[in-house]
Every structure is written in structure tokens, then in C-alpha cells.
Amino acid sequence: MIDPKKIEQIARQVHESMPKGIREFGDDVEKKVRQVLQSQLTRLDLVSREEFDVQTQVLLRTREKLALLEQRLSELESRSVQAPDVAPPTEPQM
């Protein structure tokens, strides 16, 4: 969720940057700018910084696990290539 204080700040900056004639309409213009900002930002698929940081950490841990698994797989593959061809044990027949 976008911080409402940030939206207020952006709306105020937009309002202040408008030509003087438009600014004279007063609070109505600023309120409308705030509403438009809020609705457009809501439509975007944004995440909070905290959520982004959490997902970044999850991704890093996942990459570490993947690297370990790839290394282990390589070791197992190299062992199977080095091992002589031995037939698997057969089950006793009854």
C-alpha cells in the first residue's frame, strides 16, 4: 500500500506546480489531484518496500539451496560415471 503521506506530498507538489490561475481554484484542485493519484497508484500492482525486501531474502535463500543441489547433483553424476557397470541385484525367485 502506498503511504498516504507520500500521496499528500505529491498532490501538494503537483498543485503548487500548476499555473496560478488553476491554483486559485483552491482545495478542490488539490483534492482532485489527490484522488486521481490514489486511484492510479491503486491500479498499479505495487508492493511495499518491506514485502519487496522479504521476497528478495526468500529468493536469495532459494538460489543458495539451488546452487547446493546443483553441486550435489554434479557430484552424484560424476560418481555414477566413475563407477563400474554393475548390474542391479536381482530379487530371489520363488
UniProtKB/TrEMBL annotation:
The UniProt record lists the keyword Thylakoid: no
Alphabetical list of InterPro entries matching this protein: UbiK
GO biological process assignments: ubiquinone biosynthetic process
Pfam families: BMFP
Keyword NAD: no
Major localization class: cytoplasm
A GO cellular-component term linked to this record: cytosol
Pathway: Cofactor biosynthesis; ubiquinone biosynthesis
Keywords: Cytoplasm, Ubiquinone biosynthesis
Localisation: Cytoplasm
PANTHER family recorded: UBIQUINONE BIOSYNTHESIS ACCESSORY FACTOR UBIK
Protein family: Belongs to the UbiK family.
Alphabetized HAMAP family for the sequence: UbiK
Protein's job: Required for efficient ubiquinone (coenzyme Q) biosynthesis. UbiK is probably an accessory factor of Ubi enzymes and facilitates ubiquinone biosynthesis by acting as an assembly factor, a targeting factor, or both.
Entry protein name: Ubiquinone biosynthesis accessory factor UbiK
Organism field: Buttiauxella agrestis ATCC 33320
